[in-house]
Amino acid sequence: MARRLGIASLLLALTCAPAAALAQVSDADRATARSLAIEGQEALDRKDFSAALDRFGRADAIIHAPTLLLGVARAQVGMGRWIAAQESYNRILREGAPEGSPEPFFQAIDAAHKELDALAPRIPQVLITVRGSSAADVTIDGEPVPRAALGVKRPVDPGEHTIRVTAAGLAPAEVKLTLAEGASEAVVLELKPVAPPPPAAPLPPPPDRGPVAAGGGRTALAIAAFGLGGVGLATGAVSGVLAIKKHGDLSGRCPGGRCEPSLQGDVDSYHAMSTVSTIGFAVGAVATGAGALLLLTAPRSPRRAGITITPVIGLGCAGAEGRF
């Protein structure tokens, strides 16, 4: 028997359809279905399977008949939608045709049986195994796969497919494969725990600015005080030496402690140097004492435990000596 029903057979089938099938169909609907069936067969003949599927599907929605559903199945086969075609063929066989149906209906059922037997071994199959979770969700090209269908062969259309598995708390897994006609593939998808994010680098501890800062400030003030004390002592010492020298000179020129008026400038100079010397020693003593007090009361730390500052006073010089 020829693979396809001719246009004449389609017209006969739609014209002579059982009364039950046409009871609720108007003449306009019957004419529309007939026109769609003719267009569908013409598209099928020129291998425009997408157009054929559209036209046969529309016609079958108006008048459901095995001849029209056979056209749908054949268009689906041409488009590579073999799983859908298999179901269309099975529907034709399952529904059959009521007694008194036109001969093309029975011819369509017979053709569906033969074409289904030829298609079944060509359909690829994939066996999906999931490891790492018993509650995983699996999809093929975005379509969910029942968990009961995992671990057994599942028919799929030929061509490229993406199989993806996800589960709560686990990293998703995905595989892409291309299935040829009649191929049978086994795919194992393993779920693994989501890798934790890398730990953040620890922040450096804040600098200890408590006792160290206070001790550092006291030490700095102590050093400044020692410096000021050294300047004061040096000034007092130098001025004192000059005053002593001036006093010795005036003693020889002023018998009995009485100086001539012409020497009044030298006398004033002597008194000024004596005053500067006294003030210098006083400032030096106070500043040095304050520095020593600050240094002794400053909080000690291991970094400053070896610091030693010693005042140095000598003839014509004064200052501080430090050891670190």
Order of helices and strands: HHHHHHHEEEEEEEEEHHEE
The helix-and-strand class reads alpha+beta
Uncertain ranges: none
Number of strands: 11
Q: In what range is the share of β-strand residues?
A: 15-25%
Shape: rod-shaped
The CATH topology of the largest domain is given as Serine Threonine Protein Phosphatase 5, Tetratricopeptide repeat
Using the coordinates above, name the CATH class of the largest domain.
Mainly Alpha
Q: What is the CATH architecture descriptor of the largest domain?
A: Alpha Horseshoe
Alpha-carbon distance between the two ends = 113 Å
Q: Roughly what percent helix?
A: 40-55%
Question: What is the alpha-carbon Rg in Å?
Answer: 56 Å
Total of helices: 9
Average pLDDT rating: 80
Largest sheet: 4 strands, antiparallel
Strand order of the largest sheet: 3-2-5-7
What does this protein structure show overall?
With 324 residues, the protein is α+β, with helices and mostly antiparallel strands. It has three domains: 7-121, Alpha Horseshoe (Serine Threonine Protein Phosphatase 5, Tetratricopeptide repeat), CATH 1.25.40; 125-193, Sandwich (Immunoglobulin-like); 214-257 and 264-323. The chain contains nine helices and eleven strands. The protein has helices spanning 7-15, 19-22, 27-45, 49-62, 66-78, 82-95, 103-119, 211-253, 264-297; strands at residues 125-131, 137-140, 143-145, 153-155, 159-166, 170-171, 173-179, 184-190, 192-193, 308-314, 317-323. The strands form four sheets. It has a four-stranded antiparallel sheet with strand order 3-2-5-7, with no helix packed on it. A three-stranded mixed sheet has the order 4-1-8, with no helix packed on it. The chain has a two-stranded antiparallel sheet with strand order 6-9. Helix 5 runs antiparallel to helix 6 (82-95) and helix 8 (211-253) packs antiparallel against helix 9 (264-297). The protein is rod-shaped, with a radius of gyration of 56 Å. The N and C termini lie far apart (113 Å). The mean pLDDT is 80.
